[in-house]
Specification:
This protein is α/β, with parallel strands linked by helices. It contains ten helices and eleven strands. The strands form two sheets. The chain has a six-stranded mixed beta sheet with strand order 7-8-9-3-10-11, sandwiched between helices. Strands 1, 2, 4, 5 and 6 form a five-stranded antiparallel beta sheet that branches.
């Protein structure tokens, strides 16, 4: 059996509260990821993004992170040195954030930013880095990549900006991408293009993908497996094609709250939350 890229067992993350104690953001999460597409879905505040950032050790210093196992390709993330983590972050693990206008440097050209990402993890001069940046812009299917290379972030659209972010994350040739709501700031038609692009690149490069999203139909179409999170816990993990046949009451409730064009309903149902969902899971 192939060793998974990511192994998480009993991950717990706590943040300081105003009362002097700690609030639990992630409570006993366990999951694994191979070279596949894993979707993590759930409401805001369910711990999806915190789980991804814990794997990259990008949480604030005040956060308390504990786990029986938090491993990326044999590297123990909890005990790894900062030098080792710098090699993982942006090198072997790429992070695609929600909105490129908040992630790109407004005073650097797009070409300079991609070249900087490339040189941070590859050997080569400035000219070679710019050639690599141009090649990456071509890989993410940007029209007129030479013009975009010399443009600033405010001179490109949101969809093009997200393609630029993907190009930057691909520059070190990572083994895994964490995409945190990568299409939430984009129009529906552009969303589909970006997702097809990510799908093609992940498949062609043989990477693992952790897709964090609120959009259940999107994850069902796009991913291989889905982990459903609620209040810092994983309620169930199942094949994406079986998402609409989920058994857990929380997943069923999320699906029932969604409108359908083929079904007319006067009012969408409200999710009824069971306190038993918060009980420790075996």
């Amino acid at each position: 059996m192939t060793q998974p890229l990511v192994e998480i067992q009993n991950l717990r993350v706590e943040f300081p509260s105003s009362s002097g104690g700690y609030n639990q953001a992630v409570r006993g999460v366990s999951m694994s990821l191979g070279r596949e597409k894993l979707g993590i879905v759930g409401e805001s505040g369910s711990g999806k993004s915190v789980t991804g950032r814990a794997l990259m050790r990008l949480l604030p210093e005040a956060a308390r992170v504990k786990a029986d196992k938090l491993v990326f390709d044999g590297v123990n993330v909890l005990s790894a040195s900062e030098r080792t983590m710098r090699g993982l972050r942006g090198g072997r693990i790429g992070l695609i954030l929600q909105d490129p206008k908040y992630s790109l440097n407004p005073v650097m050209t797009i070409g300079a930013q991609i070249a900087e990402a490339w040189r941070a993890h590859n050997k080569g001069g400035k000219k070679e880095a710019l050639e690599a940046a141009l090649n990456l812009l071509e890989q993410v299917r940007i029209r007129d990549p030479r013009r975009v290379l010399d443009s600033y972030p405010h001179e490109v659209s949101g969809g093009m900006g997200q393609r630029v972010m993907i190009a930057m994350m691909l520059a070190p040739n990572p083994d895994m991408l964490i995409a945190d709501e990568p299409t939430s700031a984009l129009d529906a038609s552009v969303q589909a293009e970006i997702l097809r692009l990510i799908d093609d690149l992940v498949s062609a490069r043989g990477m693992g993908l952790m897709l964090i999203s609120h959009d259940l139909p999107l994850v069902a179409r796009f991913c291989d497996r889905v982990a459903v999170m609620y209040a810092g816990q994983v309620m169930e993990t199942l094949p994406a094609q079986d998402l609409h046949h989920a058994e857990h009451a929380y997943t069923r409730g999320l699906l029932d709250c969604m409108p359908h064009l083929s079904e007319k309903r006067a009012r969408l149902p409200v999710l009824n939350r069971d306190p038993k969902w918060l009980e420790p899971r075996s």
